[in-house]
Amino acid sequence: VLKAKEYLNRELFEDALKIITEAIVLDPERDTLRSIEAEIEKAQQAFEIRKQTEKNIKVIQKHIFRAKECRVLRSYEEAISEIDQALAIDSTREDLLDLKKRMQQELVDWQAQKDQNANQASLKQHLHQAREFLAKKVYDEALMEIALGMTIDPENADLIALEEDIV
Fold first, then answer.
1. 3-class DSSP assignment, residue 65
2. For the chain, what is the largest distance between any 2 Cα atoms, rounded to a whole number of angstroms?
3. What's the rounded Cα separation, in Å, for the pair 108 and 123?
4. Cβ 80 vs Cβ 100: under 8 Å
5. For residue 90, what is the enclosing H or E element?
6. Which of 8, 97, 143, 151 is the most buried (most CB within 10 A)?
7. Which is nearest to 40 in space by CA: 86, 77, 5?
8. What is the pTM of this model?
9. H helices of the chain, where?
10. Is 126 in contact with 143 (CB distance < 8 Å)?
């Protein structure tokens, strides 16, 4: 019994079970031996759960780190994928759920900003082309560029003013 408890304290569960099983063979009627065996098995299960939890936490932290790296690089889809992998391990963690929501919102905001910047660049290009056509007195082409620019921003004052000048 003392040897089994020593092994138990050192978390050598297999050795503890082996020793206590030998003791049970010698004295199968002793209830304390069965209770010690149950205690060892319970401690072993708790130990395995704790080890698995620690392992899961490390894996989750790696996914969070990678997600934050991807976020810096504006690879939001990859960041969300990393968070999803972490959530597959522990779907109850509120911090992961919140991080995923923030990443999804950042993706939407970044995409909107990217689209807006692309529209502004395209609008400037159409305005520039229209001015060049006006300078060359190619009025139909200038009006076409203005029309294309107005599909992006129908209220653009520069396009409206240029169109009035051409007309």
1. helix
2. 111
3. 22
4. yes
5. none
6. 8
7. 5
8. 0.64
9. 2-9, 13-26, 31-72, 76-89, 94-135, 139-152, 157-166
10. no
The tens digit of pLDDT for each residue in 15-27 reads 999 999 999 999 8
| Distance, CA of 125 to CA of 101 (rounded, Å) | 36
- DSSP assignment of 95-118, as one string? HHHHHHHHHHHHHHHHHHHHHHHH
Distance CA 85, CA 81 (A): 6
161: its two tokens = 């003013």
pLDDT tens for 126-160 read: 999 999 999 999 999 999 999 999 999 999 999 99
Q: What is the DSSP letter of 157?
A: H
Which residues are within 8 A (CB) of 44 and not within 5 positions of it... i.e. 6 or more apart? 13, 17
Measured distance CA(78)–CA(98) in Å, rounded: 16
